[in-house]
């Protein structure tokens, strides 16, 4: 059986500037906070925490893996 094709790093991550994402396994951080979901998913793929479905041609996160998101609190200086 052939190994799954290596995906290309996404060219555009499209951060919204208000949310950050992090790969976690059993609630333990496995990546730094990233500015887009695509970048966090790329971290999971690079770390071997995602599975490849050859039939669909897509990567899926392994069962104990999650991508957590948090809103960035913006404060305005007076």
What does this structure look like?
There is one protein chain. With 78 residues, this protein is α+β, with helices and mostly antiparallel strands. Helix content is 13%, strand content 31%. The chain contains 1 helix and 5 strands, in the order ββαβββ. It has one helix spanning 37-46; strands spanning 19-25, 28-29, 50-53, 58-61, 65-71. The strands form 2 sheets. It has a 3-stranded antiparallel β-sheet, with helices on one face. Strands 3-4 form a two-stranded antiparallel ribbon. A hairpin with a 4-residue loop joins β3 and β4. The longest helix is centred in the middle third of the chain and has 10 residues, at 37-46.
Q: How do the helices and strands line up, and which of them pair or pack?
A:
Blueprint: E1 19-25, E2 28-29, H1 37-46, E3 50-53, E4 58-61, E5 65-71
Antiparallel strand pairs: 1-2, 1-5, 3-4
In short:
The chain is of the alpha+beta class. Helices cover 13% and strands 31% of the residues.
Helix residue percentage: 10-25%
Q: Topology as H/E string? A: EEHEEE
Main sheet specs: 3 strands, antiparallel
Q: By helix and strand content, what is the structural category?
A: alpha+beta
What is the helix tally? 1
Strand segment tally: 5
Average predicted confidence as pLDDT: 83
Which value, in Å, is the CA radius of gyration? 15 Å
Gross morphology is: elongated
**Uncertain residue segments:** none
Our measurement of the CA-to-CA distance between the termini, rounded to an integer number of angstroms, reads 61 Å
Strand arrangement within the widest β-sheet reads 2-1-5
- In percent, how much strand structure appears in the residues? 25-35%
Characterize the quaternary organization of these chains.
Answer: single chain
